[in-house]
Amino acid sequence: MEFISKTFPGLEDILADELRNTGARNVTPARRAVYFSGDKSTLYRINYLSRFSVSVLSKIAGFSIRDENDLYRKSLDIGWDSYMSPSDTISVSAVVDSGIFRHSGFAGLKLKDAIADYFRKKSGIRPSVDRESPDIIVNLHISGSSVTVSLDSSGEPLFKRGYRKGTGPAPLNEVLAAAVIRLSGWNTNDILIDPMCGSGTILMEAVMYASSMPAGYFRKSYGFMRWKDYDEALFAEIRERSNKAVKVPENIRVKGYDISAEAVNTSRRNIKAAGFEEIISAEQKDFMELLPEAPSGYLIFNPPYGERMKNEDLTLFYERTGQHLKYHFGNYKACVLSPSAGPVKRIGLKPSARYRLYNGPIECHLLVFELYEGSKKLKNRNIT
Ligand SMILES: C[S@@+](CC[C@H](N)C(=O)[O-])C[C@H]1O[C@@H](n2cnc3c(N)ncnc32)[C@H](O)[C@@H]1O
I need a labelling partner for 69 at 20 to 30 A (CA). Which of 48, 125, 208, 358 fits? Predict the structure, then answer.
């Protein structure tokens, strides 16, 4: 079977590695996606384990078209009754980059009509559309004249991990948080601090990663559970086997701080809901007053980028953050995710690595700073 794992721009390579390690075959990175092949158990395993996939599509047909009606005609040839019953509800999502269709919505409508007519001819009943909670999500991708029709096996996007009980004003997407941890190269023997933790996404993803806890550990449902060929026993076995491998490292240290009491409360609620109270602590503190409690470690965070601050305050904030890192966190590695167009340069430190990522539509950079004891001796820009 052929599958397509969709992800955010910049994460294709780490996703490809993850898929290879999870038993996928013929792994081929593309734009915002990675193609792979495998069987039903590969599909279930990847939905349950993948930290970097947003959704996993299962390809059911591929063909080329000359015009709009070709899409309708060739979609009628798909054996839809292998995948769904006429009593199922459906939704169709379409992504189109083609001269044949100018509107993706219209292409989606053609496909939906084909599915409806297929069943009407066979049984006199047509599946109805449900955009909120459909049984079957059909995905249409048209690039030039080339059409791919898939079913979305994930249903709700996989960044909905199921552990969030509350969010702050600018929560980090879970897939992105997991990616930032992976790219930071965090050694789980070292302390990990998120000094601006907001709702605690980085802290939660860090513990899940360090414990080999499946990304879907707290999640209740997946799209494939509503499929005709759903193998409940197989999925239960995959879950059980994966859950057996969960082991929280003995000396793990994961700590969050935030200047906002509200954010700390939200973090604590999420931590408690996941049962991580013994592992993660979250306290209210201004970063400018935070001092290291271990001689070395990792600071991984996404600072505010203007949700609540004026531009000049934000510039000063980044300058002071850079100074504080430089003067107090020698021997630490600081990994800062921030919009590329923002004042992140004002941090005034030279990154040893940078990764271009996207937080939704916003282009960001993950900047990695190796802070040395000697950093303190670097030229001090006078900031008051
Ligand atoms: C973009 S949000 C972080 C979102 C977080 N990663 C999440 O997933 O929810 C930035 C956070 O920085 C916090 N913050 C702002 N100034 C701070 C400071 N001086 N010290 C500590 N935290 C601060 C804000 O309260 C906010 O929660």
Answer: 125
Q: Is the CB of 201 under 6 A from ligand 1?
A: yes
Domains, the chain: 2-152 (3.30.2130.30), 174-213+247-377 (3.40.50.150)
Specify the DSSP element, H or E, that contains 47: helix 40-49
Q: What is the pTM of this model?
A: 0.93
Instruction: Give the distance between the most distant pair of CA atoms in the chain.
Output: 79
Mutate to test the pocket of ligand 1, among 196, 270, 314, 320 (most ligand atoms within 8 A of CB): 196
pLDDT along the chain (384 residues), means of 10: 97 98 97 97 98 98 96 97 96 95 94 96 92 95 97 97 81 96 97 97 98 97 97 98 97 96 96 96 97 96 77 87 96 95 90 93 94 60 36
Q: Tell which residue, 9, 5, 8, 10, has the closest CA to residue 22.
A: 5
Q: Of 379, 297, 309, which is closest to residue 338 (Cα–Cα)?
A: 309
- Which of 252, 158, 255 is CA-nearest to residue 202? 255
CA distance 321 to 40: 48
Q: Is 258 in the pocket of ligand 1 (CB under 6 A)?
A: yes
- How high is the pLDDT of residue 15? 98
For ligand 1, atom 17: residue with the closest CA: 259
Is the distance from the beta carbon of residue 171 to the nearest atom of ligand 1 less than 6 Å?
yes
> Which protein residue has the closest C-alpha to ligand 1 atom 5?
198
Q: Edge-to-edge strands of the sheet including 191-194?
A: 280-284, 254-258, 191-194, 297-301, 332-339, 362-370, 353-359
3-state helix, strand, coil in the chain (%, to 5): 35, 25, 40
